[in-house]
Amino acid sequence: MGKNIVRRLGGLLVAVVLYAGVPHAGAALKTVEVPPAEEEVPAATTAAAARAVGRQRATDEFYDPTSPAYERLQRADEALGDLPRDRDGKVDWMNALRQGLIKPRQRIDGKDREPPLDLDVILRNTKQMPNVRFPHRAHTEWLDCKNCHPDPFAEKAGSTQIRMEDIFRGQFCGKCHDRVAFITHRNCYRCHSVNPDGTPALPPQVLPVHPAAAPPTPAH
Predict the structure, then answer these.
(1) What pLDDT is stored for residue 17 in this prediction?
(2) Structure pTM?
């Protein structure tokens, strides 16, 4: 047993001497680092994604071109191309409704609901801006009364304090406007439409008008 220990120590000593005496001898004893293999993606998947990106148009940036349903989705320019536009070039939904170009379903079950409420409310606490005329008809052609009353608007006129900063944060009118209804940016005149003397407040002439803009939408 003692001889085996001596032999092992002798062999270890020889290896150490060789390693120290020959600079390149230790290279064979170093660990070789193998880079991790990259995850392989099926060629068919990458090719399909590349073709989809190539098909994507500038107006489709909100679609996922890698979706299996990409080809089945109707493009926005195809669905909205014939609808009238406002001064910003966005779809003028009220104008489209009045022209009969769209016919929103009033109820899921197909039944008719109460007719629109033809009532204007003038909001006068607007500081240096023209007064706001709120047309109930333009809203109740789309919405039910309970969509707005009693939350976020109390039914008593003047009992709800509405500030533009709250609207920009998605409260009050901002629950729809700047989201699914017309944007408020550069569209102050669409709400602030009545001067204190009752005359119409016209939009500033300095505002640019989109070439595709339709005539202003009447309130009634």
Answers:
(1) 47
(2) 0.63
pLDDT in tens, 28-45: 445 556 556 656 555 555
Task: Tell me whether residue 53 is exposed, middle or buried, using C-beta atoms within 10 angstroms of its C-beta: 0 to 12, 13 to 18, 19 or more.
Answer: exposed
Residue whose structure tokens are 């909001």: 123
Distances (CA, A) of 88 to 59, 114, 117: 16, 33, 28
What percent of the chain has pLDDT above 70?
68
Please state, in angstroms and rounded to a whole number, the distance separating the CA atoms of residues 207 and 44: 50
The partner residues of 189 in beta bridges, in order of sequence, read none
Place of tokens 């240096």: 128
CA distance 171 to 162: 9
